[in-house]
Design brief:
By secondary structure, the protein is α/β, with parallel strands linked by helices. The protein is built from 4 helices and 11 strands; from the N terminus they run E-E-E-H-E-H-E-H-E-E-E-E-E-H-E.
Length: 177
């Protein structure tokens, strides 16, 4: 696995790919992970199922999302032709599910689809992704959480929030990682 680093908005972003650097304007799957071990595990599991698509693991230490830095990275990849800007999909390890929800809530225009394992987010913000093809896997008893003085809904309630807005997406599957 090869790792790359770049500074955006004062934040160091690190991502890993198997083989060469991303390139060629191919469809790309971006997987958010919290460390290098997860990166290697996710890439080994995802790549055999992605055909010609490029797969990269973006490392978010502790699952904390530097949102503007990630947006800058994705924008650079799109503008330089490294990825096909119409075919960028998002997924995440379970430890980074909250970050994935935040990305699709705030940057849904950057992604063509997403698959998320559990996680929590603001049910109103998530409605921005109502037209995005989305697959969500929920876990029993996950429940809501309080973070930064805000109640964040679990994945099941996030899917319900999307459906209330008329989204036909967000196919939820309970207890299936």
């Amino acid at each position: 696995m090869r790792y790359f680093e770049k500074v955006f908005d004062g934040q160091v972003l690190k991502w890993g790919v198997n083989g060469a650097e991303l390139g060629g304007g191919k469809p790309t799957l971006l997987c958010l992970v919290s460390n290098e071990t997860e990166a290697e595990s996710c890439l080994s599991k995802l790549e055999p199922h992605c055909g010609e698509a490029q797969v990269t693991a973006l490392i978010l230490p502790g699952g904390i999302l530097p949102e503007t830095a990630v947006q800058s990275l994705v924008f650079e990849w799109q503008m330089t032709g490294i990825i096909d800007k119409c075919k960028l999909s998002l997924t995440a390890s379970q430890s980074c599910a909250d970050a994935a929800w935040r990305l699709i809530s705030h940057l849904s225009h950057c992604f063509s689809a997403a698959a998320i394992l559990g996680g929590h987010a603001d049910p109103y913000e998530v409605r921005a992704a109502k037209f995005m093809p989305l697959k969500v896997y929920t876990f029993a008893g996950e429940g809501n959480v309080l973070a930064d003085g805000k109640v964040l809904a679990d994945a099941e309630k996030l899917v319900m929030s999307l459906r209330v807005t008329g989204s036909g997406n967000g196919g939820a599957h309970g207890d299936q990682p």
